[in-house]
Amino acid sequence: MTYKVCVIGESCTDRFVYGRCKRICPEAPVPLLELSDTPPLENMGMAANVKRNIEYISDDQVEVHLITNHTSITKTRYVDSKYNEIVIRIDEDDRCSPIELSDIVDDDYDLVVISDYNKGFLGEEVLSKLPALFKCKNFIDTKKILKPWASVFDYVKINDIEFDRTMRCLGEGFVEYCDNVIVTQGDSGANLFHNRKCKAYPTQPVVINDVSGAGDTFLAGLVCEYLRSQSLDKAIKFANKCARVVVQKPNVSFVTAEELEGYNPYGHYME
Question: What tens digit of pLDDT does each residue of 212-227 get?
């Protein structure tokens, strides 16, 4: 069975420039990066990376329609190739024009996924009206502080930093309008807040190569398994597995069905 998914959110170009830090700059106490002959590596990131991961994880069993910004956001990471460590990241054209609700049409999707990087594409008013445009379930991964607009979404995914920001602003009151909130905890796994209770989903530690884009992969895994099983519990466990695989790779990467142990590309995730 082929599913249809709509991904809505900001996209960017992720660019990696490589070199070696062999000494400290004589003018200031910062590393001096000597650029190498290795060509810069570029790939599409943010919402476009969510789309790419869904396609690879599902082994092309999910047809993904991407609604994203037309302006170019570029994130350039200068990387010490010996240690694969980012020396500095430079973001260009970091804001984009807002989307118009009239540009969004329901095409009988099985699931809608919002990848909100808070770059201006999706304002709070648009977000509060967006789920009503579709007849299917929805997920949102957002960089915004959760407010009442978040209550219109079926499932909300944020990371632990964004969760702390929300808690500092709203305190325990956030549970009044934000149910089914999935909080990723890095190498500790994820927590699910549901019916005023918190359930932990721990993960196994691995040697981390690069965490860039890991949240996109987690979201993609969450979506793929939810489509198959209609189980949020199984989806979070599978998303943990996907994130565990991708952080062992360099740069903003993706995982494939073949890399996921216990994954049957014909339709079922086995614990």
Answer: 889 999 999 999 999 9
The CATH number of the domain where 118 resides is what?
3.40.1190.20
Q: Is there a domain that residue 171 lies in?
A: yes
In a domain, 264, yes or no: no
- Helix and strand numbers (H, E) in the chain are 5, 15
**Helix (H/G/I), strand (E/B), else coil: 74:** strand
DSSP state of 240: H
| 48 within some domain | yes
CB 177 within 8 A of CB 161: no
Which ranges in 155-198 belong to alpha helices (H)? 160-170
Q: pLDDT tens digits for 104-123?
A: 988 899 999 999 999 999 99
* Residue range of the domain that includes 201: 3-259
Reference 12, options 39, 36, 62, 48; nearest CA is 48
